[in-house]
Write a structure and sequence with these properties.
The protein is an alpha+beta fold. It has helices at 4-18, 131-134, 147-153, 161-166, 176-186, 199-220, 228-235, 267-270; strands at residues 23-28, 49-55, 58-63, 67-72, 77-82, 96-102, 107-112, 120-124, 254-258, 261-265. This is Formamidopyrimidine-DNA glycosylase.
Length: 282
């Protein structure tokens, strides 16, 4: 799942390449990707892109005088540049759902690798016209994000802290991978309820949230967009590393079941040695 550091790198790359460029063609290959049916992406033909920004995990291309193409990347959505040959000749390459062509020959393909269509495109006057954007909580990548902002959405919540970190209405941009990294760095159990955290644990969790997100953004900045996923995987300390050695204490990183997916943690660093449950394979 794309998270804020990778999406930030993507929008910076798109902004550099596309600012000032005219959209010459739009091909919606998968009609379900167009979420504003009365204003389809094809309505943007002939308009120029003025810039790109990020809202949580959403890409926002400012187009024309006052329009926005907001792309919700969903669980498996992404973008790639076409260079005459599509990657669909490569085994396991994700299918293209929407194609945007520009006056300098640049072609951007919006892709989705999931079993269902999770990527969505919205043409709106204001990004907040997209329901998921309007509901976003504060973003830890924002220089103005404070401990007060953090406490307001985390402290006292009667909900597992990992779930709170991934709840976009609470904290924008964090998903399964970076929440694992944040909790490991903070030495907090992913299944602890936020309301049960001590002041010291909240201190560590705030610092880990800000440090992890901003540090990842700095690392990902400038990485080619087709290499961002690999760069993200390579940077993980515990996420996706079950069976490997914890870099902090030397214990073995373990899997545990969380919602409809699997996450990772270190029992020594985070749960006082307790092993969290992993549902049996079906």
């Amino acid at each position: 799942m794309p998270e804020s550091p990778e999406v930030q790198a993507l929008v910076e790359d798109l902004g550099t390449r596309l600012a000032g460029r005219e959209i010459t063609d739009v091909d919606v290959v998968e009609f379900r990707a167009a979420k504003t049916r009365t204003r389809p992406p094809s309505s943007l033909r002939g308009e120029r892109v003025s810039g790109a920004t990020r809202h949580g995990k959403h890409v926002d291309l400012a187009v024309g005088d006052a329009q926005h193409l907001v792309v919700s990347l969903g669980r498996h959505g992404w973008a790639r540049y076409a260079n005459g040959e599509t990657d669909e000749s490569v085994a396991d390459a994700p299918p293209t759902l929407v194609v945007l062509a520009f006056d300098d020959g640049t072609v951007v393909e919006l892709t989705d690798a999931g079993d269902w269509v999770s990527l969505g495109c919205f043409v709106v006057d204001d990004p907040k016209d997209v329901p998921a954007v309007s509901k976003l909580g504060p973003d830890p990548a924002d220089p103005g994000f404070t401990r007060e902002d953090f406490d307001r959405v985390v402290a006292g919540r009667r909900k597992q802290v990992k779930a709170v970190l991934q709840e976009q209405e609470s904290i924008a941009g964090v998903g399964n991978a970076y929440s694992d990294e944040i909790l490991h760095l903070a030495k907090v159990s992913p299944v602890a309820h936020a309301a049960a955290l001590t002041e010291g644990e909240l201190d560590r969790l705030f610092e880990a949230t800000v440090g992890t997100v901003r540090g990842a953004i700095e690392r990902q900045r400038g990485v080619p967009i087709d290499q961002l996923k690999a760069a993200k995987v390579a940077s993980m300390r515990v996420h996706g590393r079950a069976g490997e050695t914890c870099p902090a204490c030397g214990d073995t990183v373990l899997d545990f079941s969380f919602a409809s997916t699997t996450a990772q943690y270190c029992p020594t660093c985070q749960t006082g040695g307790e092993h969290l449950p992993l549902r049996a394979a079906e």
